[in-house]
Amino acid sequence: MDIIRKIIIGVDPKDGMAYYLGMRAGGGEVAAIIVDEEHLVRYKMKRYLVYIESSEGTMLWKSVDNMPCIVEYDCRFD
After folding, report:
1. Which of 25, 52, 65, 74 could form a disulfide with 5 if both were Cys (CB 3.0 to 4.6 A apart)?
2. What is the pLDDT of residues 39-57, one digit of tens each?
3. Mean of the pLDDT values across residues 46-73?
């Protein structure tokens, strides 16, 4: 499984919106960015789901539907 570390949304990366693991957001911090596989199979379009973790638990914060994105994966070599 590929772990997404950062996603930049938009055609031009320098003007795009970026979300990355550990980023403070919505009263918590970004805990996970995943590809919604069910959406891909059902609608043939990529959708990324951004989850945050706070004192309330982990919850879906944003979804990015059918937008141009640059995805940065976590490339740890353990």
Report:
1. 74
2. 999 999 999 999 999 998 9
3. 94
User: Long-range contacts made by residues 59-67, C-beta under 8 angstroms, separation at least 24?
Assistant: 61/25, 61/26, 61/30, 62/19, 63/36, 64/7, 64/9, 65/39, 67/9, 67/10
Q: Please give the average per-residue pLDDT across 8-23, as a whole number.
A: 92
Cα distance between residue 57 and residue 18, in whole Å: 23
β-pair type (24-25, 28-35): antiparallel
Between the CA atoms of 62, 57, 18 and 9, what dihedral angle is there, to the nearest 10 degrees?
Answer: -20
Specify the pairing of strand 17-20 against strand 24-25.
unpaired
50-59 CB burial, b ≥16 within 10 A, e <16: bebeeeeeee
Token pair recorded at residue 27: 């009263």
Report CA torsion sign: 64, 65, 66, 67: negative
